[in-house]
Amino acid sequence: MTVDAADSEALDSEVADTYGLHVRYEGDDDPEKCTARKLARFDLVELHRSDRVTPYGVVLNPHAERALSPADADAKRLVALDCSWESAGEARFSLPGDHRALPYLVAANPVNFGRPMRLTTVEALAAALAIFGRRERAAALLSKFTWGHTFLELNDEPLRRYAECDDSSEVVAVQGEYLDRGEE
């Protein structure tokens, strides 16, 4: 899916105005490769330093016990943690909110291309938006990166299937199919 400049600008404002996207920014990654900082430059997310309060919302947390599902779409805010994968231990995710883990997806970013569950902040936020049925908004976020469209292409089938689920248990069941394929 390609988004032209006019559509991208309209989608940018729609993303920013109708759904609060927040990032707890730890600043321990290369600033030149930081997807959260780039999204903030386009006013698509609000960055929160670790010494400030991060708003309550659905927190994307790989250590969460429940999977993100369309049932979580009523939340007013999505919150992601932007930190190095080396320091992404459970303690770093002590943020207020309803913690949810993204289901199985494959990274498209140049650093972790093809690796399962090694998503950048923009990939995590876009995945959540796609699962919530806001695929165009996910594409608008990803359009700021030359490799962004590849994320939706690589994960087209699972994202569509997760978006069709009613709740976390259904998402986990669908995820299990992808995990079983990987073990074959």
In which order are the strands of the major sheet placed?
2-1-4-3-5
Largest sheet, strands/sense/barrel: 5 strands, parallel
Portion in strands: 5-15%
Total beta-strand segments: 5
Question: Helix fraction?
Answer: 25-40%
Structure characteristics:
alpha/beta, five-stranded parallel β-sheet, 184 residues, rRNA processing, 39% helix, EC 2.5.1.157, transferase, ribosome biogenesis
Provide an overview of this structure.
It is a single chain. With 184 residues, the chain is α/β, with parallel strands linked by helices. It has one domain. Helix content is 39%, strand content 12%. It contains seven helices and five strands, in the order H-E-H-E-E-E-E-H-H-H-H-H. A five-stranded parallel β-sheet has the order 2-1-4-3-5, with helices on one face. Strand 1 (20-25), helix 2 and strand 2 (46-49) form a beta-alpha-beta unit. Helix 1 crosses helix 4 (135-142), helix 3 (121-131) packs antiparallel against helix 4 (135-142) and helix 6 runs antiparallel to helix 7. The longest helix has 16 residues, at 168-183. The radius of gyration is 15 Å and the shape is globular. 41% of the residues are buried. The model is unreliable at 5-17 (pLDDT under 50).
